[in-house]
Specification:
By secondary structure, the chain is mainly beta. The chain has 5 domains: 93 residues, Immunoglobulin-like (Sandwich), CATH 2.60.40.1220; 100 residues, Immunoglobulin-like, CATH 2.60.40.10; 74 residues, Immunoglobulin-like; 108 residues, Sandwich (Immunoglobulin-like), CATH 2.60.40; 106 residues, Immunoglobulin-like. It is 4% helix and 43% strand. The protein is built from 4 helices and 44 strands. The N terminus is likely disordered. Strand 29 and strand 30 form a beta hairpin.
Length: 545
């Protein structure tokens, strides 16, 4: 049978209601007018929940937006029909348990997408509602900024399920102000974590997700408020040796994560090595005295001080593969610099020889200042060299060259550095001038603290470190940053609480918190900021911690 075209049109129009055009904009959110069962019902043993509103609704990302606590054992389905949503649950609920369904922004009206504020549904499978709660905020550890959309989770303590391997008992997500609240919690002991859960699987993937935690369990039997979490990123995976193989004439060990320290032992052999590719590859260079396969004992560590202590058998093989190109990077680049001069040269291969006569500062055609070994320091692998000197001390009696207006060159001549593979460096030349004090500013202040070891960092508005000062004496009561480019700044202090000479990031697996970090003079933390102008001094800024 053929149907008239107007009948087809009318059928389509009825099946797809379209909001009327014209008239005032709909600003009112849907209002919940009925639920089956009743909200806050007791002794519920059903498998369906229905919510009815005063207008047509739609769901939007409901599977992401709807937070159900405690976590369900099974899955659920839902369907939306006009002004109703029906949720059907596959598995029975736990006995004597209070459940909370927080819809957040998963339900909206179909006209303007208005969201019912604080839409929640609560029921109990027992004869009372659990009433304990926990509230707090989540901040960035490094900036102290409040963080939105961070998952905060409670796990039974003790329990075999942790943030690494299973869903939490209760969870919620922080709002725009970084605040969180979990309600209707059963009285018990819990471990609590915060997680930047990018893949929404409620498990910590520390390689890419930030996290925070408390170093103790919580006894929750009432309303617990004022908790603060600090999110930071640190790869907690154990160190794994992924491969061990020849690489040209050399031999490489490849690991799953960056290393901070290593040690190599092979009988009485002297091995030259360095770390490459973000410190994940340990390259051991050809040693002609190793003529057969020999056991290599290696000990490697990461930033959590996790250790891998193992043995591999290494054999160097002849290869026609050309060695990698020899690369050197010198920083800083051309431009103004401080009279307390510091430069770094990073190589992709260890250095075995340095010709200091070919490294010098050229001030004019008549005067040059050669670099000597007292001005240079190097690292464990001999692939990073630091040149540091104070021109004020060197030119104390030389008013001609101790002048901010005179440009100078830093020259590293060809062949100055020789690598383990007999590469010689190409010539590098940088042109600098001393910073004119009139073009820059000074930030200084006092220190009031009982800590004896800490680092004071001057950071810009994006929290990039501009300069830092490390102090290891309780007698130092002031700080100063000179020759600072005009702009807006904050000050961050990393506190070495255990006085081991470094700021420690803690260990979530051992529930060891990171050492303290304090941020001063930042609008997102304390409504202040250091605004520095040229030829200006910001003084009297007290750091009290």
């Amino acid at each position: 049978m053929k149907y008239p075209w107007f009948l087809i049109f009318l059928t389509y129009a009825c099946a797809n209601p379209i909001p009327p055009t014209g008239g005032p904009k709909d600003l009112d959110p849907p209002v919940l007018i009925n639920t089956i069962p009743d909200n806050k019902t007791l002794n519920f043993n059903g498998s369906q929940i229905t919510l009815e509103f005063d207008e047509y609704i739609k769901e939007e990302n409901l599977l992401t937006q709807l937070m159900i606590t405690p976590s369900l054992r099974g899955i659920y389905e839902y369907r939306v029909n006009k002004n109703r949503i029906v949720l059907s649950f596959e598995e029975p609920f736990d006995s004597a348990t209070t459940y909370t369904l927080n819809f957040r922004e998963g339900i909206k009206d179909i006209t303007e997408g208005n969201v019912p504020p604080n839409l929640k549904f609560v029921f109990s499978t027992g004869n009372f509602l659990d009433s304990a709660s926990v509230q707090g905020v989540v901040r960035s550890l490094m900036t102290k900024e409040l963080l939105e959309d961070i998952t905060v989770s409670l796990y039974n303590d003790p329990d075999t399920i942790t943030i690494f391997d299973g869903p939490p008992r209760y969870s919620t997500i922080t709002n725009e102000q970084g605040e969180f609240s979990i309600e209707n919690i059963k009285n018990s002991n819990y471990s609590i974590f915060s997680l930047d859960d990018k893949n929404r699987n409620l498990k910590l993937e520390s390689r890419s997700e930030g996290y925070g935690f408390l170093d103790h369990s919580l006894t929750i039997n009432d309303s617990l408020t004022g908790l603060e979490f600090y999110i930071f990123n640190l790869d907690t995976r154990p160190i794994v040796l992924q491969s061990s193989r020849p690489s040209g004439n050399n031999y490489q060990l490849k690991f799953n994560k960056s290393l901070t320290h290593y040690q190599l032992l092979m009988e009485d052999k002297s091995l030259i090595s360095n770390l490459l590719e973000n410190n994940k590859i340990l390259l051991i260079y050809y040693n002609e005295s190793v003529t057969d396969s020999l056991g290599l004992h290696f000990i490697v560590k990461d930033s959590l001080q996790q250790t891998l202590d193992s043995l591999v058998y290494v054999k160097f093989e002849e290869s026609t593969k050309k060695p990698d190109k020899f690369i050197a990077n010198l920083a800083p680049k051309n431009g103004p610099t401080n009279k307390s001069f510091r430069a770094s040269i990073n190589f992709n291969k260890p250095i075995v020889s340095v010709n200091y006569d070919s490294i010098y500062f050229q001030f004019d055609s008549l005067y040059s200042l050669p670099v000597n070994d007292s001005m240079i320091s190097t690292n464990y692998s001999n692939d990073e060299y630091i040149i540091s000197l104070d021109f004020d001390d060197i030119f104390k009696e030389d008013s001609i060259h101790n002048n901010w207006s005179i440009p100078f060159k830093f020259i590293i001549s060809k062949g100055s550095f020789l690598s383990i593979e007999n590469d010689s460096i190409s010539a590098i030349k940088r042109e600098y001038s001393f910073k004119n004090p009139k073009d820059f500013g000074i930030i200084r202040g006092t220190i009031a603290t009982n800590y004896s070891s800490f680092t004071i960092q001057l950071v810009d508005k994006n929290f990039a470190v501009i300069e830092e000062i490390t102090l290891n004496s309780p007698d130092v009561l002031s700080y100063e940053f000179r020759h600072i480019t005009p702009g807006s700044y904050s000050i961050r202090v990393l506190i070495d609480e255990n006085n081991n000479g470094a700021w420690d990031p803690g260990n979530i697996k051992l529930k060891e918190l990171p050492e303290k970090i304090v941020v001063f003079f930042h609008p997102n933390v304390n409504s202040q900021q250091i605004n520095l102008r040229a030829n200006w001094e910001q003084s009297g800024l007290e750091l009290k911690f």
